[in-house]
Design goal:
Elements: H1 12-24, H2 28-38, H3 50-61, H4 65-71, H5 77-93, H6 97-106, H7 113-122, H8 130-141, H9 146-160, H10 166-174, H11 181-195, H12 199-208, H13 213-225, H14 231-238
Helix pairs in contact: 3-5, 5-6, 5-7, 7-9, 8-9, 8-10, 9-10, 9-11, 11-12, 11-13, 13-14
């Protein structure tokens, strides 16, 4: 952002200047690579690398971040991700009612896995009020939009598993049953992470057959790929794989 001074107040003209600046930071090789793994043909992609967006978010969050978010639109992948990064940094300072309103207004804008995971991992202000975070996840888990459900799962994994809220986060995610690839993959990621805190719970879940086939198999795969799971545990987990029908 050193090439473009930040405005003291955001408006549509200044926001367009930011978009022009982002276009100048684009890397076509990275765009082509990211387009393949993003698997979201409906979202235009400039090809701006994450460190550039993070640096921009850091500066924007230190100023008129509310004005920026109010101007923000989802014209490109980078615009949506940048808004989420700004919210994450800004609300880490104070998770007040205004911050909560902006967070909840942003989440429905998420429509691919990268937007979800970037926002969830950077919205560290949610650690300040885990009761609110759990309640937010419970509301999101009931939404028809699968991306909001994925946000619920990733937030549970990121902020609630290492806390006294773990049992409620486990119970919440156990109630989620969606035949949507990115929700199922998020659940597998969640259970593989939960195993590090409560292996007995996850093993019992796998043995009981409560998970759909994709979530079940991907949970075991992720655990077997983890450097934090012992060889003996991996051998045991492999015996829980389901046979292909």
């Amino acid at each position: 952002m050193s090439d473009m001074p930040l405005p003291t107040r955001w408006d549509r003209e200044h926001y367009q200047q930011l978009i022009n600046w982002l276009q100048g930071q684009a890397d076509d090789g990275y765009r082509q690579f990211h387009q393949k793994i993003l698997a979201d043909a409906d979202t235009p992609l400039l090809g701006v690398r994450a460190p550039v967006l993070q640096a921009a978010a850091r500066q924007i969050a230190a100023g008129d971040w509310c004005g920026f978010v109010d101007c923000s639109v989802d014209g490109t992948q980078e615009e949506t991700v940048l808004c989420g990064l700004v919210l994450g940094r800004a609300t880490a300072k104070e998770l007040d009612d205004i911050a909560r309103q902006y967070i909840e207004a942003y989440i429905p804008r998420i429509h691919n896995w990268a937007q979800c995971d970037s926002f969830c991992s950077h919205c560290k202000g949610l650690k300040k009020d885990l009761d609110y975070t759990l309640a937010l996840c419970a509301r999101l888990a009931d939404q028809p939009d699968p991306w909001q459900v994925r946000v619920a799962v990733v937030l549970c994994m990121t902020y609630l598993l290492a806390d006294s809220h773990r049992s409620r986060a486990l119970a919440l995610c156990a109630q989620i049953h969606r035949e949507h690839y990115y929700v199922q993959m998020a659940l597998a990621w969640f259970y593989a992470t939960a195993y590090l805190y409560d292996p007995d719970y996850v093993v019992e879940l796998l043995q009981g057959g409560a998970l759909d086939d994709l979530t079940h198999q991907k949970t075991i795969s992720k655990l077997c790929e983890s450097f934090r799971v012992s060889s003996d545990d991996k051998q045991m987990l492999r015996t829980l794989r389901r046979k292909k029908k």
